[in-house]
Design brief:
Blueprint: H1 13-64, E1 80-83, E2 87-88, E3 112-118, H2 123-142, E4 145-151, H3 164-178, H4 183-189, H5 204-213, H6 220-228, H7 233-245, E5 261-264, E6 267-268, H8 276-290
Parallel strand pairs: 3-4
Antiparallel strand pairs: 1-2, 1-4, 3-5, 5-6
Length: 304
């Protein structure tokens, strides 16, 4: 006797095995697709990261290696020449890679030509300025002498990483370019409360304050920007290289080896940096030797 009811439709053992294999195959295929997709995304991410790194490096290089720019106006000799009335002699800007044009010494026999190479971090430059700055100003103001000041940066590595010598010389170039007749006062002010070697020196804001405190009233916005942008950085480096490589025009010196280097009518002063009478005597002697038929007008300070 047969028993009525639903027929047994369950898959056979072989069918279940085959279905399991098909499902496993589908899982493997999907996993392989996922793996390939993840690999592509990973490689793409690495590629984008690499591109980003290259861009950042390129920007750093572009910002650190600026193209050379013309030097400051009124410093075609790599220095600024100041004459009677403490008025600067104007000159066009020195173009990149151009050879400086040496200032011509006075040929009248009545004017002493003083030339000073300074680094604003150099303590001996501070000593020379403190001792002789006022009497040089008097000689120049009266027309008895000219002074040509060459800011250079040979102590850039001695300011705790702040490159103070370089930034200070750049600030001097900014003043020479925009307010040349205030340069002598600015130069003197840079040695008041002079930063010591192996310190960070003045900040850019401090340098801007020195500009104002020295009496500069014109083009202050341009000078501020010039200082913060380090506009004449490449010129300072180039002019320092020229000074330390030599030769030094209108003098027997082969190069500037230290600061201050002071020349009077081409002769190097090697006397005391703390004795104004000794320097005044040297000026008189040097001018007298250069112009034996004339009597120079600078005079030694009164005894006292």
């Amino acid at each position: 006797m047969t028993t009525g009811g639903l027929s047994d439709k369950r898959p056979s053992k072989n069918q279940r095995r085959e279905a399991a294999r098909d499902k496993a195959k589908l899982i493997r295929v999907e996993q392989q697709k996922k793996d390939r997709r993840n690999k592509f995304l990973l490689q793409g991410g690495i590629g984008l990261a690499a591109v980003g790194i290259v861009v950042v490096v390129a920007l750093v290089i572009m910002n650190s290696i600026r193209p050379a720019v013309p030097g400051p106006a009124n410093m075609a000799s790599d220095g600024i020449l100041i004459g009677e009335g403490l008025t600067a002699v104007t000159t066009p800007a020195l173009q990149p890679e151009a050879t400086p044009v040496a200032s011509q010494p006075d040929a009248s026999g009545t004017v002493a030509n003083i030339r000073v190479y300074v680094d604003y971090l150099c303590p001996y430059c501070g000593d020379f300025e403190t001792t002789n700055g006022d009497q040089i100003a008097q000689w120049v103001d009266s027309g008895a002498a000219t002074v040509e000041i060459h800011p250079i940066a040979i102590l850039t590595g001695r300011s705790a990483g702040s490159q103070y010598s370089l930034r200070a010389a750049n600030a001097a170039a900014c003043v020479a370019n925009y307010s040349p007749d205030n340069f002598y006062a600015f130069n003197s002010a840079m040695f008041v409360d002079q930063p010591a070697e192996n310190t960070t020196g003045r900040s850019d804001a401090d340098l801007q304050d020195v500009v104002r405190n020295s009496g500069v009233t014109t083009a202050l916005t341009q000078i501020d920007t010039c200082i913060t942008d380090e506009t004449y950085k490449s010129w300072v480096i180039a002019s320092t290289d020229r000074a330390t490589a030599g030769p030094i025009p209108n003098s027997p010196l082969t190069a500037i080896a230290s600061t201050p280097t002071v020349l009077v009518d081409g002769k190097q002063y090697q006397g005391s940096l703390a004795d104004p009478k000794e320097f005044a005597a040297f000026v008189l002697q040097s001018a007298g030797e250069s112009y034996s038929t004339s009597t120079p007008t600078p005079s030694a300070p009164p005894a006292g």
